[in-house]
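Researcher: Quick sanity check before group meeting.
Model: Go ahead. Protein one:
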Amino acid sequence: MNKKAWFILGVILIVFFAIVSIFWLGEKPKNETIILPEFNQKACTQEAKICPDGSAVGRTGDNCEFSPCPDDKLVGNDKDEHGCIGSAGYVWCEAKQKCLRVWEEKCEK
């Protein structure tokens, strides 16, 4: 091949690569909008509330309120049908129509 043929082949290759490069590099990225899900996460403070039974509860929920204390029976929460607290020593005195401690006040019969 003579010099003229090599020159023409070189020009054709340069033009070819230029056209391919223009199409390949000139591609515009697609304008796609990606919608991410909303995360409404909320963090509560790490405070603790001490319940009457000695256990502790933390804050929870959307309003960060303290969780309710367990429903265990509390000391002194053992009232009888008259409202007397037996664990505190109170008994019903029929004569006086009230709760009393027999070692503090006598129940006359």
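Researcher: Fine. The other one?
Model: Protein two, sequence then structure:
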Amino acid sequence: MLSVQGLGLHHSGNYLFQNVNFTIKKDDKIGLVGKNGAGKSTLLKMLSGEITFYEGNVVPEGNITIGFLKQDLDFVKGRTVWNETMQAFEQINAWKEELEEINHQLTVRTDYESDSYTDLINRMTDLNDLLMHHDAYNLEGDIEKVLFGLGFKADDFQKITDEFSGGWRMRIELAKLLLQKNDLMLLDEPTNHLDMESIIWLENFLKDYPGGILLVSHDKQFMTAVCNRTFDVNNRKVDDYKANYSKYLVMREDRREKLIQAKKNQDAEIKQMEDNINKFRASATKASFAQSLIKKLDKIERIEVDNEDVSKFNIRFVQSQVPGKVIFEAENLGKAYGQKQIFDDVDFIVQRGDRIALLGQNGQGKTTLAKILSGDIKEYSGNWNLGHNVNIGYFAQNQEEVLTPNKTVQEEAEDAATEETRPRVRDLLGSFLFQGEAVNKKTKVLSGGERNRLALCKLLLRPFNTLIMDEPTNHLDIQSKEIIKLALQKFEGTLIVISHDREFLQGLCDKIYEFRDGKMKEFLGDINEYLVFRQKESIREISAEKAKLHSDEPKVEVKKVEEKPVVNQVTIVSKEQKSIQNKLKKVEEKISELETVIETFEATFTKENPSEETLEKYNKTKEELDLALQEWEHLGTQLD
């Protein structure tokens, strides 16, 4: 479908890519992984045609269509969500208009034997074939499905896009791309602006997508579920693994161990050659031999190995004094911005040692609560109290709001340090990839990922017994996320974290506060248990939204027929319902059993690398679970 041959890109002689070759086929769903700065986003731009000044060739097969999720939005002001989403079908709408014009001409023309009349008939046939191929007569249903899946409600469809935040507008852009059904989709961090429910919906959508996909994501679980192939961008090249993300990790580690051994052998060979060069260079009789060794040494392609072992980064949060038993206590807590009520009537008690995840759709109040508890927001309704000896470390979602623009990275870190931790500043900055001249960069020129790394570094320089972390993994690569997760798992204090990353939350939190429709509910259980509950609730809620959307449609008048005894009707329905309920119960039992098996697998994965046979059984079990959930959904709709 698309072939890349000898691809290279450099700036001032420094190569980002060099002699890269690969082919993407129709059914390939490829995860693009690598450290921040490795060139993942740049590669997508090269394949999409946004970057054209490169070496080598990008060769698409035939007239394939390529869709690219851009980060810069260009919406026409005044359009509704529905009308903006309809722009995805610009070509289809043009075909429909052309077909309508042809139909009009055919009704008024009488030159049935002319060539031009025949041409119109042929064009009409071609247009009908195109429209059928693109399923053009089910567009409204497709739009509803995608907008609901990405978190929009029926009431949002006729709202003006100007009213929505950048994150929600990015969802509209994503919806348009998904609806276009391109032969190849290029997705750069598609989950960045999505809540957990929308991420899971997108995951299922992409698994069934009929075309090819090349995506960048730092969500390991998302990548494992969607991708059947992995491209690892490192050291100016792209390593191709014919495996999903979880299998790729095993294969990469095996390849890496072999690479380390090969590098040791090469280093020994190079040292031997250098010793011989130094030994023979001064000898008149052997100077020519030394020169031949130098030429041979210059031709050696040096083996490079990235440092991937996160366990070597011994990063710990400094613990302050032990606080009282109660950390936070809230009663009837609420917050509104003008006429917009974010949440109200919220009660909770956070106790010492609690590890809580705040979950829910964007805009429901998670960040607002974090800001109230951290002291950033002073005005609210209701009451909340801070416990005895509570020292709060707060990681804000928007670091540009809390960093001093004109200070350097080192100055910002030193300001956060205590006398005890000040000597560790340079070493800690180095652990977060601020090395050499990078420590002298002004914070105002830092990227999103760099700002987050600096903010995390600052938290490690002061003692706290309570951490409030608002999206701490945003803009971080997978390795950095693993380092932070390990540090938070070692932290013995109280943790409140906002995140849409399921894998990050696994093993980190044991209690959920869910924000929904202006309220907050407490869920006792980990992220996996919560997601099973939420999936069932989401099915019901989407069904209700669809019913609401079509409730105002005109009803077809049905003639009254002779009534039959009501008793018989009730009896028949009751038997059918009972049969369906029995089936539902069996399916729910099966779902519970499969989830237990999956949890057992995942528990072993954290202790040792799984074999290919184990991974195959694990993936087969997940497929069984997906089928069982689909059956559960189907039976549930029969009861509605």
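Researcher: One line on it for the slide.
Model: The chain is about 45% helix and 20% strand.
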